[in-house]
């Protein structure tokens, strides 16, 4: 009987008795659906948490990118150099430049060699050669073809021209010749040009591109079969035509009273971090100063970038004091750990720094503090005491720069040994004891064995230790025992960058156990979501089966009620 009332998904419930069993079944299914709704809401809560993890990860990476713009003293510490006479010399200052004034007295600037052909070939003061009237029709070979040869920088350039070649053809042939190289072979050595002396009167001008009076910087025209005016004797007499010729000379100048000579006008080896550009004869004073405002902007950028992450962490983990309700990730151990790790770095002494030996060793000393005032709108965020920062920059700007941007900078106050080098990424920043025993010819760095090289007097930490790659030089290896401390300093920007690199390290494979906490948490939460999806699929199958069962049962009940209703109707009639 029931088979006649059920056909596939089509239900005939209620046709026999008049009872609306479809609505009843629909109501029962809605009750059963609540379980799926609960699971879907639960799933969404984990999805939302993953989205917050991803947003936090993005903000951490943005913080890392921002910090990388100021993570070396050269990027962080901005210094300016000014000149009292820009026509004599200008200057630029790098982070290593010492603040102060420098006197520069220029006698002559460095020059290159310039040769221009003229028409007086025998120094008699008379014109011996015909005018070259134009650059693009006059045949400089005299109608027979010819060659033009010169030497420069130890190279010989031999140019061959065909019949009908013009001055422009000669210029182009010289400039494109493969043997025309600079002294350093880094590019063209001599640039040729057609120089207009007057209307209908042109000369060939050869310009050496290397400055200074080095013999290799001279241009020597050694052979020419071209027309008069382009012969070897038409080149080289500066006294005859000084306005169109120039000898190569070294720059001659005094720096703080010391006489110096250089083959260039760009001088970067007279004082650390300072580059001079000599322009003309005379005296000027170069003044180097720290650009305090630019440095303050860098500090503000540091504070703002960190606060953006702190604000995000506070937003997803805070507890509403009014309702006592938590946020989406309140109490999450991963978020709490990330927040605490970043706070610890900001609050702690710099790695490799010393409270006694370093002018500044903590951010609080330069005005960067965490606002702990109850009820403050910036509570929990970094705030900048600009007056304190100004004071620190006025006292020792280099120390401020080190605290924020030192990048595995090695230092020691000991006279008995010197820091030589380390391997960033292999050598760990920190403070390490150094010991050298002359009797046994052995040494240690940070308590780890180190290898001594008698030829270089260098002690190198062996591999497999935090000090791996750290090298110091024993200044007096004959001393019985040499001890001291070497510090590898890591500024706060780089300490934060290293920490963020760990925190955001993605999980590259299921067996990657070095992934950061955010990647691990996201993977764990995805596993939970997969489990919830399995439960939802199970519930959907269960409800589908239950719906069929209800339809079958109520169809049978409907048929039975219809049967008895018919009997009752017959008895009443």
Brief overview, please?
The chain is of the alpha+beta class and 573 residues long. Helices cover 33% and strands 24% of the residues.
Give an overview in words.
It is built from nine helices and 26 strands. With 573 residues, it is α+β, with helices and mostly antiparallel strands. The chain has five domains: 118 residues; 73 residues, no CATH class; 131 residues, no CATH class; 98 residues, no CATH class; 84 residues, no CATH class. The strands form seven sheets. An eight-stranded antiparallel β-sheet has the order 19-26-21-22-23-24-25-20. It has a five-stranded antiparallel β-sheet with strand order 3-16-5-12-13, with no helix packed on it. Strands 4-15-14 form a three-stranded antiparallel β-sheet, with no helix packed on it. A hairpin with a 4-residue loop joins strand 21 and strand 22. Helix 1 packs antiparallel against helix 4 and helix 6 packs across helix 7. The N terminus is likely disordered. This is Flagellar hook-associated protein 2. It is found in: Secreted; Bacterial flagellum. It comes from Desulfocurvibacter africanus subsp. africanus str. Walvis Bay.
pLDDT average, as an integer?
89
Summing up helix and strand content along with how strands pair, one would put the structural category as alpha+beta
Number of structural domains: 5
Q: How much β-strand is present in the residues?
A: 15-25%
Low-confidence stretches: 1-15
Query: Which geometry do the CA atoms define?
Result: elongated
- Strand line-up in the sheet with most strands: 19-26-21-22-23-24-25-20
Number of DSSP strand runs:
26
Rg estimate, integer Å:
42 Å
């Amino acid at each position: 009987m029931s088979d006649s009332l059920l056909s596939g998904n089509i239900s005939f419930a209620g046709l026999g008795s008049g009872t609306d069993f479809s609505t009843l079944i629909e109501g029962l299914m809605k009750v059963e659906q609540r379980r799926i709704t609960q699971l879907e809401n639960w799933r969404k809560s984990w999805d939302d948490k993953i989205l917050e993890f991803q947003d936090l990860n993005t903000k951490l990476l943005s913080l890392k990118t921002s910090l990388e713009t100021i993570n070396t003293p050269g990027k962080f510490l901005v210094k300016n150099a000014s000149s009292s006479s820009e026509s004599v010399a200008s200057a630029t200052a790098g982070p290593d430049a010492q603040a102060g004034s420098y006197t520069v007295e220029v006698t002559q600037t460095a020059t290159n060699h310039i040769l221009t052909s003229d028409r007086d070939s025998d120094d008699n003061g008379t014109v011996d050669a015909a005018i070259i009237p134009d650059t693009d029709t006059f045949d400089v070979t005299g109608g027979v073809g010819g060659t033009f040869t010169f030497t420069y920088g130890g190279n010989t350039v031999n140019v061959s021209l065909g019949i009908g070649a013009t001055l422009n053809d000669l210029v182009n042939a010289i400039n494109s010749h493969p043997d025309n190289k600079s002294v350093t072979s880094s590019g063209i050595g001599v640039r040729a040009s057609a120089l207009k002396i007057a209307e209908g009167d042109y000369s060939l001008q050869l310009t050496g591109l290397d400055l200074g009076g080095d013999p290799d910087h001279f241009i020597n025209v050694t052979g020419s079969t071209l027309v008069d005016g382009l012969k070897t004797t038409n080149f080289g007499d500066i006294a005859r035509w000084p306005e169109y010729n120039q000898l190569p000379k070294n720059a001659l100048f005094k720096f703080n009273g010391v006489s110096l000579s250089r083959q260039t006008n760009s001088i970067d080896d007279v004082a650390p971090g300072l580059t001079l550009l000599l322009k003309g004869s005379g005296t000027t004073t170069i003044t180097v100063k720290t650009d305090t405002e630019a440095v303050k902007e860098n500090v503000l950028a540091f504070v703002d970038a960190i606060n953006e992450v702190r604000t995000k962490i506070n937003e997803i983990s805070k507890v509403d004091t009014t309702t006592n309700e938590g946020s989406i990730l309140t109490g999450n151990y991963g978020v709490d750990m990330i927040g605490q790790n970043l706070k610890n770095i900001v609050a702690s002494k710099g790695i490799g720094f010393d409270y006694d030996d370093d002018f500044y060793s903590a951010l609080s000393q330069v005005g960067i503090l965490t606002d702990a005032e109850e009820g403050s709108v910036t509570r929990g965020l970094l705030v900048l005491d600009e007056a304190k920062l100004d004071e620190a920059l006025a006292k020792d700007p280099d120390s401020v720069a080190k605290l924020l941007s030192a990048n595995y900078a090695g230092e020691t106050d000991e006279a008995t040994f010197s820091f030589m080098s380390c391997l960033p990424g292999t050598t760990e920043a920190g403070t390490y004891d150094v010991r050298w025993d002359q009797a046994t010819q052995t040494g240690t760095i940070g308590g780890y064995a180190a290898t001594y090289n008698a030829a270089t007097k260098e002690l190198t930490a062996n591999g497999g230790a935090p000090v791996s790659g750290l090298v110091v030089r024993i200044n007096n290896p004959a001393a019985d025992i040499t001890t001291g401390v070497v510090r590898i300093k890591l500024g706060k920007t780089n300490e934060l960058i290293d920490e963020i690199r760990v925190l955001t390290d993605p999980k590259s494979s299921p067996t990657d156990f070095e992934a950061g906490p955010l990647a691990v948490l996201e993977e764990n939460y995805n596993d939970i979501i997969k489990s919830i999806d399995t439960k939802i699929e199970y519930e959907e199958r269960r409800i589908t089966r239950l719906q069929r069962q209800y339809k079958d049962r109520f169809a049978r009940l409907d048929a039975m009620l219809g049967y008895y209703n018919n009997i009752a109707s017959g008895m009443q009639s």
